Amino acid sequence: MAVRVSRRSFLGAASASVSSLFLAACGAARGSASADKSGATGANIKVMLNTNVMSLDTNLAADVVSYEVIADCIDGLMQVDPKGAVIPALAKTYEVSEDGLTYTFNLRDATWSNGTPVTAHDFVYAWRRICKGAGAYAYMMSEIGQIKGAAAIVSGDEKDETTLGVTAKGDKTFVVELETQVPFFMTLMYFPLFYPLNEQFYTSLEEGTYGTSPDTFLSCGAFDLTSYSLGTANLLLEKNPTYWNADAIALDSLTYQVVGSSDSALMAFESNYLDIVMIGGDQVAVAREDVSLKDKLKITISGILHFLTFSQTKKNAQGGMLANANLRLAISNAIDREALVKNYIDDGSEATYTAVPPHYALSATTGEDFSADQAMFSEWVGYDPKRAQEFFEHAKAELKTDAFEFTLIYSNNEGDEIEKVAQAIKEQVEHHLVGLTLNLQGMTKSERVAKLMSGDFDVALTRWAPDYADPMTFLGMWVTGNSGNYGRWSSEEYDRIIADCTKGRLVSDYNARWAALHDAESLVMREAVIAPLFTKADVSLINPAVQGVEFHPVGVGRAFKNARVT
């Protein structure tokens, strides 16, 4: 049984260090009013990040923390309202051709923070750069967004990025041509990958320095980046006075502080050093039972799926042993997901048995949740030690061995509950599958991501956040060659189904496409390409003086444009 340390005694012991940490982070704010007894400071709010910003370069960023900060400072063509509906941002209006293949965006008057206008050329340059750079998310231009010519540029087959189907017709008209219809195309326009970039500014910088400091970053959104250095644990954003919708922005500034543990987060909130924190595990139970805290709790399903992914290449996993589907199925069915969320997460997160998590992808014709039926793949995924042993016996016979040893990697700087989950998975799997050893290796998130991208791992405890409100944001990962296909699984049948749904015969038949996506998902579950674990709930404590913060399960998780201090 875990020992719970009194947060009151812990608070007293660590108060001085926490105080110095947050005063250093917040002291740079200019023009902030003095703190009131609630802890809020004038029109400044102080917000926790659970990990460092990886990059403010849209071609390099690959995590929700980086995307949140980018979206604070830069607008896309579209944004979302508090209910998640897509509404105009830099695009004042837009038109779609009858065949659904051409989008024409008419831009409003907006400026970058160096005083230069935001133009259609900024979008053309940014999108060409993403495709040519072929970063981790470039596939959203080609495979998901279906921008004309993007696939050839991203793959390297086409060296001339000017062949991309984007055009600036003057400074205020941006035209996008698609290879095929994309039913959710407008929802993509909120995602930071599709944001603009000022070419003259970017090319004036030393290579590799863009977004590493306020001097190497331009804003055209609600906030300016005023204090930041690469890898720092704190950031300061201030209201952008030249923002096109500046009159609607109530905050003077926004301070971010990285806090690595739930204990420290709760302590910082109770001490009034932070106005918004994220907590998990024991701290959620503490807050629920504390009269002074329970009415400040906000629980939202994030849409983030946590799962195990398995390397299927011969350079890993004992010479590629995990390419055996029965071995992967054995591991998946040895895991008690309900126990994971109850005993180690305990924050409203939901045990999940599908490759697409519930609550975020709803049918446009029926309103049905794509993953409402969590038992649809019960033949292949679930907690069933007997079935796990049967799969294991098949695997041992096929691989001609009864001894397996793999390393499970996980992040040790994304909340203390992740380490507990990794330990629990090790214990469950080794208990039910005698002869299989899972060694644990904790590392920073950036190290884990690097290993996933390079394929240098056996088993990884990882996660994926939805970028847009369609099942393809998850199912697109397991296409052969996709950068998110960490295990290097490949299936011609799967690739064909996804191709039919993205650029083939099913694109214009919404209901048939929806059904086909379920067929694709069944392949992922039948072969245990991943072992889904749980859909994360985000638990926040929010100073009651702070109002209007928006939480979204898709794309950018939090938005502060409508936030205010009462």
Question: Keywords, please?
Answer:
18 helices; globular; 21 strands; 566 residues; 4-stranded mixed β-sheet; 7-stranded mixed β-sheet; D-Maltodextrin-Binding Protein, domain 2
- End-to-end CA span: 42 Å
Radius of gyration: 24 Å
Q: What fraction strand? A: 15-25%
CATH homologous superfamily annotation of the largest domain: Periplasmic binding protein-like II
Number of helices: 18
> Can you summarize the main beta sheet?
7 strands, mixed
CATH architecture of the largest domain: 3-Layer(aba) Sandwich
Mean pLDDT: 89
Q: What is the CATH topology of the largest domain?
A: D-Maltodextrin-Binding Protein, domain 2
Low-confidence stretches at least 5 residues in length (pLDDT < 50)? 1-41
Find the structural class using helix and strand composition: alpha+beta
Task: Give the proportion of residues in helices.
Answer: 25-40%
Beta strand count: 21
Question: What does the overall shape look like?
Answer: globular
CATH class assignment of the largest domain: Alpha Beta
Number of domains: 2
